[in-house]
Amino acid sequence: MDIRNKPITVLGLGKSGLAAAKLAKKMGADVFVSDSSASDDVKKNKDILASIGIKVEIGGHSDNVYKNKHLIILSPGISPDISFFRKANEENIEVVSEIEFASWFSPAKIIAITGTNGKTTTTILIKNILKEASYNAVVAGNIGTALSEKVESLSKSDIIVAEISSFQLENIYKFRPFISLVLNITPDHLDRYKNMTNYIHTKSMIFKNQTAGNFTILNYDDPIVSKFENATKAHVSFFSRKIQTCNAFIKDEKILMMSDTEDKEICRFDELSIKSTHNLENMLAAICVASVFKIDPMIIKTTLAKFVGFPHKTEFVNKINNVTFINDSKSTNVDAAKTAIENSPSPIILIMGGVHKGSSYTYLEQAIRNKVKHLILMGEAKDIIKKDIGELVPITYVYSMDDSVEEAFSLAEPHDTILLSPACSSFDMFRNYIERGNLFKNAVNVLKSRIEHA
Questions:
Q1: How would you label 198-237 residue by residue, b for 16+ Cβ within 10 Å and e otherwise?
Q2: Average pLDDT by stretches of 10, the chain with 454 residues
Q3: Ordered structural domains, the chain, with CATH
Q4: Which end of the chain is more exposed for a tag (fewer CB within 10 A), N or C?
């Protein structure tokens, strides 16, 4: 799309907004950026853009956001419900998401992965398999690098593996991935969406513009996701832990892939470094993507066998006096926390809390009853969590990450597990889940050093 000399607003000045503004400037647009925050990070980004001649306002939104504008590019953290979007609509100004905008300038095929949980793991697995098969695959989207930052340097032979959140799927109109993948859908972000129906609809936008020449990969075991088969025009592949007639499936503790002639064994469970239920599903999804590119099963096997996970997702941190510390800071919703609890050795001292996202914590009741012996709560959601599940186990309130680690360790006995799995977003106390997880790890390591040198 030709945006040369067109007046454009980029709303939000985080990573996505910064990248979108730079891309729009390179494409010849007259760019204006607005952010309601005046944080240190926003000020730093303002200086970067000012140095290349982009006008920026921070600390609030003026009428310049929509006055005489051709297009508004929306960062994913900003809700499209804010009031001046009504004025933009009245002025017939198109409002698009950052991934929509970036996709206009991408020559590369896009593999787009969404779902409530497992997106990052699956994105990394797919990228690793493609790299092992000698494709030039780059990761972008919700995983940390904005799509707008990548597209200009790519060619038709490259592949973008993009983790896509529901927020990023709002306000898309032409975004059409070569492969769309939906892992699962469970309650999340109900502080942003009116109900589950709205959340499900937003997730389904990922295949909205796909055609018969594209591919959609779905989780057959998820009753919401499997119904999407009838809503996409793309060729559909299924993966399943339970049904052995899907394109990727499990049988007799082996992972298999369906082919035109016969089922092909990829690997046995005992050949994997990680083999929890949710990671098996992520691997099955990645295999379906690999099958589209007709990648050799031995390459897939080699990649899966080498995969050991990544930071902040059920990450082993340390062991002190035979007490194990696990960092699961990336679990920002109740379903992810439930999985972490179920896959961690008991008894567990569980650290939870942060910004409430609208889902009931009663969803965790059985998992907590089975495995958790003490609950440590922090952040804005602590009273809501206590109200939902406070009768199940003893509860302690804390007010910092250092205090949570100290308190958990004081309650622990040998062979206990101290698990940080917040079930909440991090923005009340931390910049993101990465900072939260790093502070947890640092507190654990400081504690160990103090004990060892006492």
A1: ebbebbbbbbbbbeeebbbbbbbbbebbbebeeebebebb
A2: 93 95 97 94 96 96 91 86 76 93 97 94 96 97 91 95 94 96 88 87 96 98 96 97 94 90 89 84 97 96 91 91 95 92 93 94 95 96 94 95 97 97 93 94 96 84
A3: 7-100 (3.40.50.720), 106-306 (3.40.1190.10), 315-452 (3.90.190.20)
A4: C
